[in-house]
Amino acid sequence: VFAHVVQAPEDPILGVTVAYNKDPSPVKVNLGVGAYRTEEGKPLVLNVVRRAEQLLVNDRSRVKEYLPITGLADFNKLSAKLIFGSDSPALQENRVTTVQCLSGTGSLRVGAEFLAKHYHQHTIYIPLPTWGNHPKVFTIAGLSVKTYRYYDPATRGLNFQGLLEDLRSAPLGAIVLLHACAHNPTGVDPTLEQWEQIRQLMRSKALLPFFDSAYQGFASGSLDADAQSVRMFAADGGELLAAQSYAKNMGLYGERVGALSIVCKSANVAAKVESQLKLVIRPMYSNPPIHGASIVATILKDSGMYQEWTIELKAMADRIINMRHQLFDALRARGTPGDWSHILKQIGMFTFTGLNTEQVAFMTKEYHIYMTSDGRISMAGLSSRTVPHLADAIHAAVTR
Ligand code: PMP
């Protein structure tokens, strides 16, 4: 009965790793994966995470019972505080409902399902380009996906005028997906002044902000600085949604820990919204897993562990920034044609190199460098050892 099923293509991002794994070359480099690697190219488990796990293991009172549909209460409260700030009026006024979800993706999906059911506007605007999973998540939840201009290939920066024009002509009340910081794949973020203009325009047209916060602390090394965009919108008293992921900033990729927050106009509305979120979640997966959320809650509620986390987080962010400098210097040393200053300017895990599909294919074939075909490289996958090889490959690709 399944003989008619056709072979589906590999996921464009995860497929890069599949191809990398098949390559026997000893010089191969995987710059496709959006996960942090150490200088030695190894995945990293934070010390503070190991410590939290040890505490959890040693605590014999912990059991493996089901969590509530909305997840671990402590985790939800602490996650909201992390993104909105401890002095957030919305939190003090109990106008925010936060539910634990399956990492960033699951948080986006639950938010999208809720909007499709309970929000009058079904059109969502996503930046062009954006993370490849965004259009899929929103479409499958029943929303209609449109794009707004974001990246300007000519400047390798923000197309701010295009962004404003597109949001200005969006229908009243439309949903707008915003990357809270460290835009994926471009590494281009609005400045605080630009965020303020975006906020004013969006509020004047009742556009509903849906923030995707997958890199808080990873962009600048500061958890507060990376949440400024979200906090700016929360401070005006209006509604918003925010999807948080602990995959990158705590290195909890496979634990699938995240949260969806919906900021409402009153505590009464927030309680009703939460009751409906439960109806969204229950038939999807009943309730979320306990282990990862317990790790996060353990770290966030202990001031010593929290401090330790911020130090380890900053070290990851700094290593990535250092890789930007090394790659930039290596290209300059080779006299590689072009202006590569965007490598230094772009923010977060990725550099949008500006290399085209053919150049990427050439680098993969001749240099065994694996990256997405849009020219995005993960700076977190680079090391001092692999920078020269990458610089050689880029040089060869652009001077061919
Ligand atoms: N949003 C963006 C922009 C991302 O880059 C990612 C991870 N690549 C996610 C959401 C979700 O990741 P996860 O589900 O692993 O938390």
From TrEMBL:
Organism lineage: Eukaryota, Viridiplantae, Streptophyta, Embryophyta, Tracheophyta
Keyword annotations: Aminotransferase, Transferase
UniProt-recorded name of the protein: Aspartate aminotransferase protein
What is the originating organism of this protein? Dioscorea alata
Taxonomic superkingdom? Eukaryota
**What Enzyme Commission number does this protein have?**
2.6.1.1
